[in-house]
Write a structure and sequence with these properties.
Component of the COP9 signalosome (CSN) complex. This protein has 509 residues and is mainly α. Among the domains are: 160 residues, Serine Threonine Protein Phosphatase 5, Tetratricopeptide repeat (Alpha Horseshoe), CATH 1.25.40; 95 residues, no CATH class; 70 residues, no CATH class. The protein has 20 helices and five strands. The radius of gyration is 42 Å and the shape is elongated. The termini are far apart.
């Protein structure tokens, strides 16, 4: 992108992932200065060291600080940074910042400095480069502090916060995001709608920090606040970051449905931004689908379908296919042959749950025909250790998905017959019901109580008045049927039913 193009672009617009290559058009000025500048540009690729000297010679040819000297210093600084000459790059960056107050316009200087910092950020590859980058940020903040350029102040501080996040300097980062949140608020503490884009970037950085430190409580609160920001038109990459962290947060809570939704939104935003992170988030989406136990293929949607045959996602595609077919051997083989999947800590942390679910299904399917089996048999079939088999079987028994008991001394599992258990339970229920009915009939039946409320035992068989008569006591077991019964008298002499004394009851016959 040319310096002139930088100048012409709207300074309010955020730029991401553009090329940092100058292709300046002639702006007039001294011919010798122009020739020197363009001669240096032609030397950049083949002879960068000599090109640096040529670029640094441009400012000296100007009687006063101007555009050509500014552009020459920018080119020299970029080359010095690429070659690892960090001290020289910092020295010449200080000189460059002296041009922004008078030699070039405010919008041009702001855009150029922001592009320079973006270039430095993308080119930094080691700790020395990061230290140099931190000096660039500090110098920029010092230089623009007196100019009251709030936009550049916010952008530079956000870049500095991002650097501290990469270096895991959380204490400094916490202080910086607190300062940035305050700068994006009104005096009453509410969010300033005019700074909504910056506010979302700060939220994204803080959410990333809490995701890395596993502070889910703070992460959840910030995530919900970030989604309520309506005044901004954020870059999709920022929303991709926020949604990705939200998905990871939901995963830690085993809220698979919400995690799947967030990962899909994150993938869609990264895809729109052209970010390579879309591939990694697509893997998270596939992982969540397996944890949900869903039969829906995550590559059926219009957004994900183009990536189904992408070689970078092929392993996860094969994995979800084996999972949905419940093919344990293919699943284990894919994991074994693609250990690079576990290089991502998030996948490594959650794939164990998927594997356990897969093995649990395989054990249930394998032991279905048997009433007795050994742990070593399952171990051999699934190619896992007997201890892992015992752990799975124990879980199934506790979860009542398998009825049986483990004999650890012999390493065998005895499965209880479901039909026998059901028959025994039915007999117990039937016996209990009969006993309850018998007790109710004998204790509460109207035909078995005396008028005075005295409960008598008898059978109703063959005694005369005074013995078998209902008005007098009868001995247990002396009735006609040989069983004791509780009878109610209808009066002395004949019973209320009109039967003669001594006649047997219905229960006695």
């Amino acid at each position: 992108m040319s310096d002139d193009d930088d100048f012409m672009q709207d300074s309010e617009q955020e730029d991401y992932d553009f090329e940092y290559e100058d292709d300046d058009e002639e702006q007039g000025g001294d011919v010798d200065i122009e020739n020197k500048y363009y001669n240096a540009k032609q030397m950049k690729v083949d002879n960068p060291e000599d090109a640096i000297d040529e670029f640094l010679g441009v400012p000296a040819l100007e009687p006063e600080k101007g555009d050509w000297g500014f552009k020459g210093l920018k080119q020299a600084i970029k080359l010095e940074f690429r070659l690892g000459r960090y001290d020289k790059a910092v020295e010449h960056y200080k000189e460059l910042l002296t041009y922004v107050k008078s030699a070039v316009t405010r919008n041009y200087s702001e855009k150029s400095i922001n592009n320079m910092l973006d270039f430095i950020e993308k080119s930094a590859e080691d700790e020395d480069a990061n230290r140099c980058m931190e000096k660039f940020y500090s110098l920029t903040l010092e230089s623009f502090q007196s100019t009251n350029n709030e936009r550049l102040w916010l952008k530079t501080n956000i870049k500095l916060a991002r650097l501290w996040l990469d270096r895991k300097e959380y204490r400094q980062l916490t202080e910086k995001v607190r300062e940035l949140h305050k700068a994006c608020q009104r005096e009453d503490g509410t969010d300033d709608p005019s700074k909504g884009t910056y506010s979302l970037e700060v939220y994204a950085l803080e959410i990333l920090m809490y995701a890395e430190t596993r502070n889910n409580k703070r992460l959840k609160a910030l995530y919900q606040r970030a989604l309520k920001v309506r005044s901004a038109v954020p870059h999709p990459k920022i929303m991709g970051i926020i949604r990705e962290c939200g998905g990871k947060m939901h995963m830690s809570e085993e809220n698979w449905k919400e995690a799947q939704s967030d990962f899909f939104e994150s993938f869609r935003n990264y895809d729109e931004a052209g970010s390579l992170q879309r591939i990694q988030v697509l893997k998270y989406l596939v992982l969540t689908t397996m944890l949900m136990g869903s039969d829906i293929n995550p590559f059926d949607s219009q957004e994900t379908k183009p990536y189904k045959n992408d070689p970078r996602i092929a392993a996860m595609t094969d994995l979800v296919d084996a999972y949905q077919r419940e093919d344990i051997h293919s699943y284990e083989k894919i994991l074994q042959n693609n250990k690079d999947l576990l290089a991502d800590p998030f996948i490594a942390e959650n794939i164990d749950e998927v594997t356990r679910n897969m093995r649990t299904k395989a054990v249930l399917k394998l032991v279905a025909p048997y009433t007795r089996f050994t742990l070593s048999f399952i171990s051999k079939q699934l190619k896992i250790t007997p201890l892992e088999v015992q752990d799975i079987v124990s879980f199934l028994i506790v979860d009542k998905k398998l009825r049986g008991r483990i004999d650890q001394s012999s390493g065998t599992v005895q499965i209880e017959s479901v039909s026998d258990n059901d028959r025994i339970r039915a007999m117990q229920d039937w016996s209990s019901a009969i006993g309850s009915l018998w007790a109710t009939v004998l204790n509460e039946g109207e035909g078995f109580k005396s008028e005075e409320g005295t409960q008598l035992l008898g059978g109703g068989g063959g005694g005369g008045p005074g013995q078998g008569d209902f008005g007098g006591p009868m001995q247990p077991g002396r009735g006609a049927n040989g069983y004791g019964a509780k009878l109610r008298s209808g009066g002395k002499g004949k019973g209320s039913s009109g039967r003669p004394p001594g006649a047997g009851s219905a229960l006695g016959r």
